[in-house]
Amino acid sequence: MKKKSTSQSAFFNTRVLLASVFCLAGVFIALLASGAFSNASAQANASQAQAQQFGQTTVIPALHSDLSRPLREQPLVWPPIETEHEANLNPKIPHQHEDGPDPVIQSSFWQRMINNPAIPGPVLQWAGIPYPGVGCNCAPPDTDGEVGKTHYVQMVNEGLQVFDKLTGTSVFGPVAISSIWSGFGGACQNSGNGDPIVVYDQLADRWIISQFATPTGASVPQDECIAISQTGDATGAWYRYDFHLTSNFLDYPKLGVWPDGFYMSANVFNTLGTAFLGPQPFVFDRVKMLVGDASATSQTRGIIGGSNEESFLPADLDGIVPPPVGDPNHFVAFPQGSPLIYKVWAYHADFTTPANSTFTLEASVPAASFTSLCPSTRNCVPQLGSSANLDAIADRMMFRNAYRHFADGHESLLDNYTVSANSVAGIRWIELRRTQPGNWSIFQQSSYQPDTTWRWMGSIGSDNQGNIALGFSASSSSINPQIRYAGRLATDPLNTLSGEQHLFDGTGSQTGTQNRWGDYSDITVDPVDDCTFYYTNEYYTTTTTFNWRTRIGYFRFAGCTAPQKGTAHFIVTACNGGAAISNASVSIDSRPYGATLSNGTYDAVLTPGSHSYSVSKTGVGTQTGNFIITDGQTTNVPVCLGGSPSPTPTATSTPTSTPTATATATATATATATFTPTPTPTATATATATPTATPTPTPTPTSGITLTASGSKVQGREVVNLSWSGATSTNVDIYRNGTKIATVPNNPNSYTDNTGAHGHGSFTYQVCNAGTQTCSNQATVTF
Predict the structure, then answer these.
(1) Phi, psi (rounded to 5 degrees) for 258
(2) For 89, phi and psi rounded to 5 degrees?
């Protein structure tokens, strides 16, 4: 949690009390000014919001939600700077760990390779937000950041800044995090306490920021304040939510992006902070929050296992390949037990039927033994020129639990924590893997400790080719704390990091502040090239107290290339009149992806090949269909909602450089269409935002093409696999119940129809040479 630097309560500090009066006046003015942008009056449901129990799941409605004005237009909050310094410890998590010899400390052979590292040096590094973190005289800064399409967003206690990700030039800020909450009211506006987190949702092209807050009448953080950018512009408007999650002390909340939800872990203590009650998982309704829906809820299964259960982190999605359909989020816990294991928990959220949500143990993975670092103290990491040792925070997994689904089908989870290795701090890093069908198992693990320098406060991730980078703090009695990173190529021998680089060397050490450092750092991967690593951490320029600085930098492995991908450009309009439809939810291949902007468009970056979609908006309608993605190209996907069923064109690919170009498409009807096509030639249409229905032919069976079909259910959804022989055209038309649903290449003579349907019913299929009535037999699948 945030560590205040004041030694007295603000209520007894005359200077702060006067400043508070002026701040309250400013807030009142801001509230008046923001009235046109906030629907607070319609959604101020704090007094009515009550948690409900559904089986073992607690559903928590938002206390309050609204849409802010653009951040660049918000009244900026600049609290007064205080001069008295006193840090407060966050509670330490107790362990029942039994020390043992570490069998996976990196060997001296790889230690010698540090002199000739395989990992590249920084491409660029620049200054991040410095102490006092805009308006919070506190330590540590809780440094984290995330990279998006064009920007890098950094957060600290309690500041936020937006940078150009290539040049490091400031685009906006630094400003207080509370600037985002100006005009919102309640704990989020007035009592934010820090532990900030920013993540980028690359499926939706949105930013998510959070910090915890102390509600009126409480003495510790119990609320989580979450804001989701309305667009991909971090300086624009934000959907804002306040969730009151517990009556206990909510500490160290960490977020992970998943298709169906924003998942969060927290360490829960009693309100005095003297007793660890256990770890608690939460999930927030991503689909609703992406469109600012006031009915969005959070779910939790409560505290897991009690005080003897180790804390965990939720999986955070990297890369363009999403998890398998219906896959739960995977929480990885700090090692526990004898013999040691990593518990992997599966959180399946059901926002329609909350009683069906589950949080279950899906794997117990053997862990190599180790010796705990600083088991009885937080202050053991030495530094040059200061007798005040630093906090190792070696009692938990370090942010993030990085998940990646690789193109070859295997999945990876990367985690790290700090251990004692050869009597100094080293970083134990692990990679868990699974290949379907199968469960998580250890793929590689190692304690990185190549010399006598202390290394801790790590963060780990991988690029799309499996190259791994680990960022961390480094210090000893002979050097000031430094920011470094190490890494390995995917082709390196397992369990080794093949080199180390310096991102930035501090020129001072920290005194006082009750030895706090961290509490976390952050490494993330560029979503555009999926190769470039961005890392941020803290350091000092002079030996002093309460004067930390932060640094941001990026690097990439020379051999890394971007994955094959294309863009689906959705254009969603009303069937009657053609008006753009905003906030329509878009699912692709049966997974929630994103939502349309105010102009009715949404872009999804996808792997090449055939994809299905479902676009819907409550009270307007739902449309489904299929499209094809080509590497390096943009496919326009026009969709209309409302009115009677209308065909939706499946557009052909157009160059990425001209995403707005009109594409020629063959009209296709939705899966729910039941009209009988008339026997007229298939028409081709130009894909526009307002497609009109074009009659499609009645397929005539011919002995030249033979079709077989088989059905199955995937996560309850009905899927039909088609295969055929005898077609002579380059492409073939696929018909379901007399309606053409796709035009696909004739080779490889197969197609999978993700119908999206549930329950009982029948589907009848035919395959025809494209644009003709030369068709196969009818094949019917009944569910």
Answers:
(1) -140, 155
(2) -70, 140
CA–CA separation, 635 vs 653, rounded Å? 4
The DSSP line for 677-720 is PPSSPPPEEE--SS---------EE-TT-EEEEEEEEETTEEEE
H/E element, 159: strand 159-164
% residues pLDDT > 70 (the chain): 82
H helix and E strand count, the chain:
5, 54
Instruction: Name beta bridge partners: 744.
Output: 732
Amino acid letter for position 604: A
CB 243 within 8 A of CB 62: yes
Question: Closest by alpha carbon to 416, among 359, 463, 367?
Answer: 367
* SS3 category, 185: coil
pLDDT value at residue 362? 97
Helix, strand, coil shares of the chain, percent, nearest 5, are 10, 45, 45
- Which pLDDT does position 31 carry in this prediction? 37
CA distance linking residue 770 with residue 728, whole number of Å = 9
- pTM of the predicted model as reported, rounded to 2 decimal places: 0.80
- Rounded distance between C-alpha atoms, residue 300 and residue 282, angstroms: 5
Q: Determine the residue type at 140.
A: P
- For residues 757 and 783, give the distance between their C-alpha atoms in angstroms, rounded to a whole number: 10
Closest by Cα among 500, 474, 504 to 488: 500
Phi, psi angles (nearest 5°) of residue 26: -65, -40
Interval 133-160 mean pLDDT = 94
Residue 430 near residue 448, CB atoms below 8 Å: no
Determine the pLDDT at residue 107: 66
| 196, two tokens | 């900030």
Answer yes or no: is pLDDT of 658 > 70: no
**Burial class of 86 by CB neighbour count within 10 A (0 to 12, 13 to 18, 19+):** middle
Burial zone of 514 (CB within 10 Å; 0-12 exposed, 13-18 middle, 19+ buried): middle
d(CA 767, CA 748): 13
What does the alpha-carbon distance between residue 554 and residue 125 come to, in Å, rounded to a whole number? 7
Nearest to 456 by CA among 374, 377, 387: 374
**Cβ contacts of residue 415 below 8 Å, gap of 6+?**
313, 332, 397, 398, 401, 402, 429, 430, 432, 460
pLDDT digits (tens, 9 = 90+) for 2-23: 555 543 333 233 333 333 333 3
Q: Supply the DSSP symbol for 506.
A: -
Query: In terms of C-beta density within 10 A (0-12 exposed, 13-18 middle, 19 or more buried), how is residue 20 classed?
Result: middle
pLDDT at 755: 80
Distance CA 409, CA 431 (A): 16
Distance CA 236, CA 145 (A): 18
d(C-alpha 648, C-alpha 666), whole Å? 9
Gyration radius of the chain's alpha carbons: 27
Report yes or no: 281 and 304 within 8 Å, Cβ to Cβ.
Answer: yes
pLDDT digits (tens, 9 = 90+) for 556-598: 999 999 999 999 999 999 999 999 999 999 999 999 999 999 9
3-class secondary-structure state, position 177: helix
Decide: 572 and 641 in contact? Cβ < 8 Å. Answer: yes
Report d(CA 527, CA 737) in Å as an integer. Answer: 40
Contact present, 95 and 375 (Cβ < 8 Å): yes
401-405 and 315-318: which strand pairing? Answer: parallel
Non-local CB neighbours of 185 within 8 Å, separated by 6+ positions: 31, 40, 44, 64
Which secondary structure element, helix H or strand E, spans residue 234, and what is its range? none
Structure tokens at 338: 């004898």
Greatest pairwise CA separation for the chain in angstroms: 93
Contact 183, 31 (CB under 8 A): yes
